Amino acid sequence: MFSYNFTYELKLLIRNRWLPILSLLLLISFAFATYNGNYRTQKRIKQIASIEAKVLESDANMLKLLDSVEKGMEVKTSSRRIPNTPMAVGYQHPRAVTMHPNGMSAIAIGQSDIFSDAIMPVTIDDDFGIDFTEMTSSVQLLFGSFDLTFVIIYLLPLLIIAFSYNILSAEKERGALRLLASQPVSIYKWIFQKMVLRFFWLSIITIIALILSFVISGISIFQTQFIWLIGLTLVYSLFWFSLSFLINLTGSSSAKSAAYLIGLWVFFVLLVPSAISQIAHNIYPTPSRNKMVNTIRTLKVDVSKKQDKVLDHYLRDHPELVTEKGNENYSFWHKYMASMDMVEQEINPLFSLYDEQLKGQQAYVNKWIWLSPSLVINKEMNRISGNSTTDYQNFKTQALAFSKHWRNHLIFMLYSQQPFTTKDYDTLPKFTYKPLELNGIGKHLAIEFICCILIGISGVYLFKKRLQQGVAILNN
Predict the structure, then answer these.
(1) Is 199 part of a structural domain of the chain?
(2) Which residues of the chain have pLDDT under 50?
(3) Which candidate, 268, 242, 282, 453, places its Cα nearest to that of 370?
(4) What does the alpha-carbon distance between residue 427 and residue 290 come to, in Å, rounded to a whole number?
(5) Residue 453: inside a domain, yes or no?
(6) Under 8 Å CB-to-CB from 80, ≥6 apart: which residues?
(7) Are 427 and 107 within 8 A, CB to CB?
(8) 377-387 tens-digit pLDDT
(9) CA-to-CA distance for 100 and 110, rounded, in angstroms?
(10) Residue 23 lies in a domain
(11) What are the CA-CA distances from residue 254 to residues 184, 231, 250, 251, 259 (Å)?
């Protein structure tokens, strides 16, 4: 019976032009989404490369000036711009702190259009975290970007619904179901076989469309993350086929089956994620960033008025920086960096509160993420792309730690009364981003697969229960 179903279903799909239409739709949507994601990724790469090139050019000019000064040659530049002091290097020649996209960044824009992935920390006017700007376009925040993740999560289920919503009802409305009931096969096994065959053909088309989309966009498919992408897509497709199997077994008309499945799509893809996100923001509200900026500015003004006292307090906390010559040898920069240290201590609780609220939101979403498979798939695809919220929090933590290390390195030279020379250039701290390890995807795939099996078993159970209760499945 299965071989007959396979042949009959294939002929039916070809005759109805479902396979070519579905193949064309998936290929066009996947290819355009991949191209769009790759275009944004290449744009990010160019911006990061421009920043790094700017730093290299700045360093080259700095070394030329230092070499000329050390050789006693005359330089035609302001004395303030000669990088022979630590602070001149600190505010004129910042480092490039960058987060390069990985090989799969094109599949999900994620948080890359919201958070900064390249900063240039300096020793002055450093707001210790405000540099990580957020996007202010409410329209972009609402709709997101048309990337591969968007197509898979939002559009692919709609194609599956259109592909499978009326397997039983179409036969019933054509009057062929009674003839089928006379055959030695149960209705639910027959529907299951047709679902398996349609899932098989959709999986083949999806894999081919993904491979062609990556090849067209020039992205390598020989990556472990690409295998995970295929696995996530197929399991997500299987979830919607399972729901369609369940709805078909209710024996409803084609119109009702389509309405039920569209309702489930709205519930799982739109309502549940929106409700979880809104509740998380209400339970863990983040402080106003404008208020934080104003607080920092006020603190800087207050601290600048009492720099002498601030310097004394700073030296008491850092006795290793005290020189034998006394306070009269301290310049503006000594007082300024001491005042910035106090400002940092004052505003750290504000940033800690902000980070704690964000972590609270993420923990709440992760706690209820299993209520919607779209949330699980979206989270994992963002992780594969390296553009998830967790990835940018990781980059922010590393960038701020490096920024502090960079300043402390120069501050130590400042208080030690050490001039900056060409030999000191090689000792300057260098930033290397360490991405998070990609683990746990296999466990999430297994859980989603088990959910699909439970949905299918539930459908068979309800179908048999209806038969036991005498409900007429064959009638309209």
Answers:
(1) yes
(2) 128, 130, 133-143, 326-328, 476
(3) 268
(4) 37
(5) yes
(6) 88
(7) no
(8) 999 999 999 99
(9) 14
(10) yes
(11) 25, 30, 11, 9, 9
User: Alpha-carbon distance 183 to 206, whole Å?
Assistant: 33
CA 229 to CA 40: how far, in whole Å? 19
> What angle is formed at CA 121 by the lines to CA 359 and CA 403, rounded to 5 degrees?
60
Query: What's residue 374's pLDDT?
Result: 93
Is the entire prediction scored with pTM above 0.70? yes
Name the H helices within 369-434. 373-385, 389-415, 422-425
Cα(263)–Cα(143) distance, rounded to whole angstroms? Answer: 20
Q: What angle do helix axes 389-415 and 373-385 make, rounded to 10 degrees?
A: 40
Question: Containing H/E element for 225?
Answer: helix 224-248
Question: In the numeric block, which tokens belong to residue 145?
Answer: 């970007």
How far is Cα 176 from Cα 163, in angstroms, rounded to an integer?
Answer: 19
Interatomic CA distance for residues 454 and 242, integer angstroms: 9
162 touches 142 (CB < 8 A) = no
**Cβ proximity of 133 and 439 under 8 Å:** no
The closest of 309, 312, 307 to 322, measured between CA atoms, is 312
Q: Which two tokens stand for residue 122?
A: 């300096």
**Does residue 356 belong to any structural domain of this protein?**
no
H helix or E strand, kind and range, residue 97:
strand 97-98
CB atoms within 10 A of CB 456: 20
CB 230 within 8 A of CB 207: yes
Q: How many domains does one find in the chain?
A: 1
The domain of 231 spans: 2-33+148-282+444-468
As a whole number of angstroms, the distance between CA 395 and CA 432 comes to: 10
The type of residue at 13 is: L
